[in-house]
From TrEMBL:
GO cellular component, one term: cytoplasm
Organism: Mesobacillus zeae
Compartments, record wording: Cytoplasm
BP GO annotations: L-arginine deiminase pathway
UniProt keyword list: Arginine metabolism, Cytoplasm, Hydrolase
Annotated catalysed reactions: L-arginine + H2O = L-citrulline + NH4(+)
Protein name listed in UniProt: Arginine deiminase
Pathway recorded for this protein: Amino-acid degradation; L-arginine degradation via ADI pathway; carbamoyl phosphate from L-arginine: step 1/2
Gene3D superfamilies linked: Arginine deiminase, L-arginine/glycine Amidinotransferase, Chain A
HAMAP family: Arg_deiminase
Main location: cytoplasm
Record-linked NCBIfam families: arcA, PRK01388.1
Listed InterPro entries: Arg_deiminase
EC number assigned by the record: 3.5.3.6
């Protein structure tokens, strides 16, 4: 059986990718919960599904195998023991505290066939879904209380963030925001129990149980030797150091982790919202992350003496990329062509967030016409996908995809 994971670059020919089709979890978004649930507007479900299907078809047209999160999770529930342990971990992480409601919800979830169980966990559970007679707590009778027992998981279609394949292993991420905390639990069960993965001894470069957060939008596999990781609003310096230590200890190919500090703002939540790799020597960048002379805070982590890491500082992204990737030239392609307004507008709608399907061939949102034309003028082949509703969740094609297998360069 072929080993199921291989990602040694951002641009090697994409063979298998994990997606999540937006579902009824988006119908549980209301204006009061948009900020908590990390959305800027409520997408129209049939339209966002149509756009997502278009994205999946564009990938298949490039010869990519598309697998879906909910299908893999349902296929991982192989017996009652796995079902019960998934339900218990999920409920505990959902913070369903009141004991009697907890028992009723647990029984209800346990009674569902596996595909419905998976959907219910993902779409959330409103309080009014439980039979009236099972209400035992005062707050359950009060109409204007929090309407959910189980909060919906509308960010699931951003499969990039809860886990990332690096080389032959996985970073199973501890999410920074409560709204996304449970997402990596699903990936844990898939890696542990799905027949596609469970027969293999898959190394974990990061485990979700720790105190420090890291998210896949910050994890960029630049080569078979170098990983770039954003120090961002979502990923902490401590988590990056932990990951580097495990990666260096267990995978002799990896030599360097390049930690790149970016501003901690909503628009730039992850490194991949402002910087992606499109070809061996070409990268998109949002100009606003560069200082006046192009400077940045970059740190190179390498194996040091004994268990320690050697950490050294760099200030220029182009020079650092040339150094770590052994390149003579590196081209940065500015989002929005460098025009202040176009750059801000297109970055907000994920103009720097490209998904490479092979070197120099990328999928982007159609709305970012300035950035797309600029990519083409640099010799990059651009495959545009629909983006009116998908963009409302603040993520682009890279955010919406978790590569499981890419050919080596
Ligand atoms: N890699 C990414 O930048 N993912 C986009 C995540 C968007 C989601 N609404 C979030 O705020 O986490």
């Amino acid at each position: 059986m072929r080993y199921p994971l291989n990602v040694t670059s951002e641009i090697g020919e994409l063979k298998t990718v994990l997606l999540k089709r937006p579902g009824r979890e988006l119908e549980n978004l209301t204006p009061d919960y948009l900020e908590t649930l990390l959305f800027d507007d409520i997408p129209f479900l049939p339209a966002i599904q149509k756009e997502h299907d278009y994205f999946a078809t564009s990938l298949r047209n490039q010869g990519v195998e598309v697998v879906y999160l909910d299908t893999l999770l349902a296929e991982s529930i192989l017996n009652d023991e796995i079902r019960l342990s998934l339900i218990d971990e999920f409920l505990s992480e959902s913070k369903v505290g009141e004991s009697s409601s907890l028992e009723v919800i647990r029984e209800f979830l346990t009674s569902l066939p596996k595909d419905q169980l998976v959907n219910k966990m993902m779409e959330g559970m409103q309080k009014n879904e439980l039979p009236h007679k099972s209400k035992r707590h005062l707050h359950e009778f009060i109409e204007n209380q929090d309407p959910f027992y189980l909060f919906p998981m509308p960010n699931l279609y951003f499969t990039r963030d809860p886990a990332a394949v690096i080389g032959n292993g996985v970073s199973l991420n501890r999410m920074n925001r409560t709204a996304r905390g449970r997402e990596s639990l699903f990936m844990k069960y898939i890696m542990q129990y799905h027949p596609r993965f469970s027969p293999h001894d898959i190394p974990l470069w990061f485990d979700r149980g720790g105190a420090y957060s890291i998210e896949g939008g910050d994890e960029l596999v630049l080569s078979s030797e170098v990983v770039a990781i954003g120090i961002s609003a979502r990923s902490t310096a401590q988590a990056i150091e932990n990951l580097a230590q495990k990666l260096f200890a267990k995978n002799e190919n990896y030599q360097k982790v390049m930690a790149v500090e970016i501003p901690k703002t909503r628009a730039f939540m992850h490194l991949d919202t402002v910087f992606t790799m499109v070809d061996r020597d070409k990268f998109t960048v949002h100009p606003a992350i560069l200082g006046p002379g192009g400077e940045m805070n970059i740190f190179i982590l390498e194996r040091g003496e004994d268990e320690d890491l050697k950490i050294s500082r760099r200030a220029n992204i182009v020079d650092t990329l040339k150094e770590v990737l052994n390149l003579n030239e590196v081209t940065l392609i500015p989002c929005g062509g460098g025009d202040d307004i176009a750059a801000a507008r297109e970055q907000w709608n994920d103009g720097s967030n490209t998904l490479a399907v092979s070197p120099g061939v990328v999928i982007t949102y159609d709305r970012n016409y300035v950035s797309n034309e600029l990519l083409r003028s640099h010799g990059v082949e651009v495959i545009e996908v629909l983006s009116s509703e998908l963009a409302r969740g603040r993520g682009g094609p890279r955010c919406m995809s978790m590569p499981l297998y890419r050919e080596d360069l």
